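Good morning,

Both structures are done.
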Amino acid sequence: MTRPAPWKRTTAAERRSYRAAYAQKKAEWQASPECAAYQAKNRHSDARTKARNKLKLAISGGRVRPFTPREIATLLAPEIEALKARATERKTGLTAEQFARVYLLHEGNLALLRDDQFATLINVDRPKGALQQTAPEAGDEQP
């Protein structure tokens, strides 16, 4: 078994030179086209993962934030069709007033609402504490 090398403290000047050399290598790497390609691949992969997780949650009835343009660009055709089918499934059976309320409050993102939120929105007789009405009724005073 070989003996470990004795520990030797570096001087401040040596540490500064090591940091400067590392900073120079890092700057060279970040300026290279390989780094740009690597970062673009990682951004695409991250957006794809986020989009797939949002899609799974939306299909299962969970509430998700709207898709970003980058996330939409990563979705495949069958996934987009599944999202459209979920929205169409929710649209069927809605009255014009219910659809208008959902569209005004959530800009038509029917597939992105949680099941209980969707039920609350389309329910005409909302329970106490549910979402507020979009426009005050006649005779209501504003504070």
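Second structure follows.
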Amino acid sequence: MKKQLLISILLSTLIFTACSKEETDLPGEGENTACGDGICDEHETQNPDLCPEDCETEDSEVVDEDEEETEDDQKIARSTGPLKYQGTYIMEAGTHRPEVLVNDDDLYLLAVHPDTDEGIQHRGYIFDASDPLNMDFDDYESFALTPEGSDHRAIIMDDEIVVVYQVNVMSEDMPEGPVSGPAEAYSESQKLMMARFSLDGEEIFRDEILSTTDFEEDNFPDMCMLAWSEDSFLVSTGASNTNPKETIFKIREVSLDADIITEEKYEMTNDYIASIGNSMFPVNNGFLFFSSTQNITVTEFDEELNIGDTVEIEQDNDLAYTFPTGVIEYGDYYIVGYSSHEADEPSIEINPLYPAIMVLTKDFEIILDGQINELFSLDADLGSGHVHPTLAIIDDRLFYTWSSQYEKDDGNNMPQVRIEEFELSFN
């Protein structure tokens, strides 16, 4: 299945989608174990009612990287091949898992950003992008996205924002005190929800797609989205599989009224495709499925959701690659946002992930590849969780969003969304 694909790509419109997800961690993972400890860990961020005293937000800030540049920083080019670093915007501490979208002169950022008082779990931000060279990220409109839930993904279809998100219904006999592992281990059921909004953030529709108590069959953190027809989209979910050598996932076509139209289940070895942390990208007669089990892979699916050939992109270093959650097209190239770390230690608590970027030709030759901190000498913190990079392009500006770690005054960490801006310059 490793023969290279030559696929005719739709070049007329920049379309991007992504899919992701890591399993939600509960308090007790690593050193962050209890409410009242001043630590807003990932599970507390996703579930603000658990420990609201631990998740106070800090002010956002704009960072002028050039002013903070040291002699050591200057040793690394600010311009690398087709990308030139322009600046960084840092959102409030406590924001997480950004999804960045573009429509006409607006840039949308959808993120985990809990507000217990207002009953908000995820929030959307709308920025004026009519002049992408001079974006003012301090000037925005915001709207409530979800009242509950953990993971979310979103796309824009037919002048609407379409959001899919997971809701865990926690078991009444969940143990008291510190616990560890994914939240699904302490859930009695899960729901896969969807909502639609106008482009100015007004809610139009919200309903359940499906629910489950059989997590070995369906596990909703592992979601993917792709606009499919005029009135339907694809969503991919994984399963709580106990076989480490096997990948199980489903792809469903869902109507804009939350009805399931078709469903396909895939069971295969995990040599090429992971069930989580992926992206789907539309091409003629189907779509490409960007994934990673060690190196980044690209698999072809046809219009009937049949799986085709896979290309494994050989990356020349000693890193482990994961979560290619952002893929976008720019002319004759794909730009992929993913995360990576040293391959010798898989635990992200011990060995945190860093945001990375790859530029590929349409026949999947690497033009540029590396962690953005090293490529552009960014003064950035470690990644939070699986980093979850997503990408958007306006004219010749690339916006790369990701989750970093914010260190509080007491030395503890919480997630914080960053927006990196790059100028695109391809010869």
